[in-house]
């Protein structure tokens, strides 16, 4: 009986597809997009410290747990000349692909790197037959909200006291992928 059950679970369980590293050109610079490994976590923490004024929204253990998760997920970094300058994380939850975090070093913001990282998660979401792509953003982060709206996200709900460190509210935003 258990042998049959194991066969069924293997057959219907989604196998994690590997991301194929790619190079993108922006502002006459070449960036490599590739999957994040455990060895990259220190670089991600450094970007968080720089972008979030010394704060660490995600800890090393949080990144390690996500990278080791059996749930379908995609964690990418953007690098130039081997230096990590941005990253994004996305996890599949039912029919939603949820962007867990995204950050681009301030020296590389405004080049389209954030948009490119989000587009990679959109492709990943569609491959996994998701109906929505979602994220939360701080109410005070108007610059990011503007970018997300340009990409196609629409505001949904305000999550009161969402961010632990200062009890700031979050704005939930989504893209309806069924309409694409």
From TrEMBL:
**UniProt GO molecular function:** N-acetyltransferase activity
Q: Name one Pfam family in it.
A: Acetyltransf_1
Q: Which residues form the N-acetyltransferase domain?
A: 31-178
Q: Does the keyword Transferase apply?
A: yes
**UniProtKB keywords:** Acyltransferase, Cytoplasm, Transferase
Provide the family line.
Belongs to the acetyltransferase family. RimI subfamily.
Tell me what this protein is called.
Answer: Ribosomal-protein-alanine N-acetyltransferase
Species assigned in the record: Enterococcus faecalis (Streptococcus faecalis)
């Amino acid at each position: 009986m258990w042998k049959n059950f194991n066969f069924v679970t293997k057959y219907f369980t989604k196998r994690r597809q590997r991301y194929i590293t790619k190079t993108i050109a922006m502002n006459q610079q070449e960036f490599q997009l590739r999957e994040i490994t455990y060895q990259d976590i220190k670089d991600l923490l450094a970007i968080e410290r720089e972008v979030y004024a010394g704060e660490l929204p995600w800890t090393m253990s949080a990144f390690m747990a996500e990278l080791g998760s059996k749930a379908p997920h995609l964690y990418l970094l953007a690098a130039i000349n081997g230096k990590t300058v941005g990253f994004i994380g996305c996890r599949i939850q039912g029919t939603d692909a949820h962007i867990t975090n995204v950050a681009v070093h301030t020296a590389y913001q405004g080049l389209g790197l954030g948009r490119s990282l989000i587009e990679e998660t959109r492709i990943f979401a569609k491959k996994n037959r998701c109906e929505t792509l979602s994220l939360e953003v701080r109410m005070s982060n108007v610059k990011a909200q503007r970018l997300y709206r340009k990409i196609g996200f629409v505001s949904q709900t305000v999550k009161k006291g969402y961010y632990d460190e200062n009890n700031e509210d979050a704005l939930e935003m989504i893209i309806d992928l069924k309409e694409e």
